[in-house]
Design brief:
Helix content is 31%, strand content 16%. By secondary structure, the chain is of the alpha/beta class. The longest helix is centred in the C-terminal third of the chain and has 18 residues.
Length: 353
């Protein structure tokens, strides 16, 4: 069994890691509102907006829970207050008989499509469709048998870590590695819907990197793109956001989803943010090279005859920067001119001694 983690994970030819632009995932979830045409349109929107991948969810209410009116099966508070788990998942699930059509459409237009799931039967089903990667949702991170099942496929594995302790994250990693899986991406996540800036806790991305020594990212449930962008200098190589066709149309996750315009802006801003991180080397950039010559330097402001002493009244520190550097000003005072020097000449060591 390999014990190391991949510092670069590749999904359908796209390399993901700190040396590459962040990988943007558009999560459909239940925002298709029970209409396959909406799901197809959302995949197209993701492609047109420049996202790298689309994620769906592969479960049925019967694979993820049971039909029960007991109190522990009822949701209290939040967006889905009053639903039972079964009723919510009945409304939000993506029918399995849609999947082949959705995968074919994604392939046709050239965008990666993969899925999360809640049981072994979904993994087997997705394998039959050639799913290129798998995601373990935050709620399923404690389902180690399911993680081992997904890891055994040999496909890259994304694991969301919302609500998880360090011990639970370590156990999930070990479960994946036990099946020889090293292409693992850990996603920081705040599992509240929507989540707030104060709960974003992006410093956890740094801790995940220390634990994992591999690729890390963010599954973002805030209302806009700020948290996603701020996560990038913390080391986030993956950004996942829920998308919706229109913010005006209510869907199961529309409250914390972004629309097509916001997604397009996110993709552009993510790339700009990543490019802005740059290097820690203190070197002159290409853009600075034209400005550099306008730094101040020592120039003559009077005609100086050969043999004359250089004094304060015949030189000044001015722009541009073709003369001796200002830090040598005191050293230059009292030196002699080796030649006649006209006013407005950049002072150089070759003409004084």
């Amino acid at each position: 069994m390999k014990n190391h983690n991949s510092e670069v994970v590749t999904i359908e030819g796209r390399r993901i890691g700190v040396g590459f632009p962040p990988y943007v995932i558009a999560e459909i979830s239940g925002n298709h509102n029970g209409d396959i045409n909406n799901a197809i349109d959302l995949i197209t929107i993701a492609k047109d907006s420049g996202a790298d991948a689309v994620k769906i969810q592969t479960y049925t209410p019967d694979t993820i829970t049971i039909k029960s009116d007991r109190e522990e099966f009822k949701i209290e508070g939040g967006l889905w207050d009053g639903y039972t788990l079964y009723d919510l998942y009945e409304k939000a699930h993506t029918p399995w008989d849609w999947h082949e059509t959705l995968f074919e459409h994604a392939k046709k237009i050239g965008i990666t499509l993969f899925s999360s799931f809640s049981d072994d039967t979904a993994v087997d089903f997705l394998e039959g469709l050639g799913c290129p990667a798998y995601k373990i949702g935050s709620l399923e991170i404690v389902d180690l048998p399911l993680i081992r099942k997904a890891a055994s496929t040999g496909k890259p594995l994304l694991i969301s870590t919302g609500m998880s302790s360090k011990e639970e994250i370590s156990e999930a990693l070990e479960a994946a590695k036990s099946q020889g899986c090293t292409d693992i991406i850990l996603l920081h996540c705040t599992s509240s819907y929507p989540s707030t800036y104060k709960e974003a806790n992006l410093k956890r991305i740094i801790e995940l990197q220390k634990m994992h020594n591999g690729v890390v990212g963010l599954s973002d449930h805030t209302l806009d793109n700020i948290t996603s962008l701020v996560s990038i200098p913390f080391g986030s190589s993956v950004i996942e956001k829920h998308i919706v066709y229109s913010k005006d149309k209510e869907t199961v996750d529309s409250m914390f989803s972004i629309d097509s315009l916001q997604l397009k802006t996110l993709v552009s801003d993510v790339n700009n943010a990543w490019n802005s991180i740059g290097s820690s080397d203190f070197k002159i950039t290409k853009g600075e090279s034209t400005t550099y010559k306008y730094r101040p330097s020592i120039y003559t402001i009077k005609n100086i005859n050969k043999g004359d002493l250089i004094t304060n009244d015949c030189i000044r520190i001015i722009r541009p920067g073709l003369g001796i550097k200002p830090k040598y000003y005191d050293k230059v005072i009292g030196m002699k001119a080796n030649v006649d020097i006209a006013s407005g000449t950049p002072l150089s060591w070759s003409i004084i001694s």
